[in-house]
Design a protein that fits this description.
5 helices; two-stranded antiparallel ribbon; globular; alpha/beta; 29% helix; Spore Coat Polysaccharide Biosynthesis Protein SpsA, Chain A
Amino acid sequence: MVQASSCVGALRVCLPTRDGRAEVHTVATLLTALPAALGRPVLIHLGQAGNIPRARNQAQREAEAHAPDQDPVWVLWVDSDILLEADQAPAVARYVERAEVDGVGWVAHYRQADGRSVLSLEGGRHAPILAAEEAEALPDWHPIAMAGLGLAYLPMPRGYLWHADDMGEDWHLWQDTGMVARFAAGIRVRHHRLAYL
């Protein structure tokens, strides 16, 4: 975890990882450009475990420990394979502020390894995922029923237990909580998948 002189008003970033690795540019953006754009400190809560649900649980418990009187706890989820460049920090800051005013979380769009988006306008175990072109054509702040959590700012219920089975932990979150988010159309990120040779 990256310490700040004061946790009051800090943006809590949860970064789950299997092996302690993350995109260098993303971490630099989170530690320098984003605090400057927000005008408040950023605390990074690193969750490292053998699988992502455990890593998410670890990071969320850390965030909750630093926000003992908050329920829900607002968390910026950033996956370790998401590339967030410094020029996107002002957009992220605007959406963080909008979410806190509106009381609703947001998700950013990125492409999966197969080129599809990570957004769905429907809920449920077999909810259809939008094609990347469909996702990119959505209007800003459009309601999203389910999404991957590569980059998302959400009001997390205290004590939520991340879990997965034949369905990923991100899909379970939406089903378990009934949460609906908004589409942050103005944020551009890339998804870097590690390829083993």
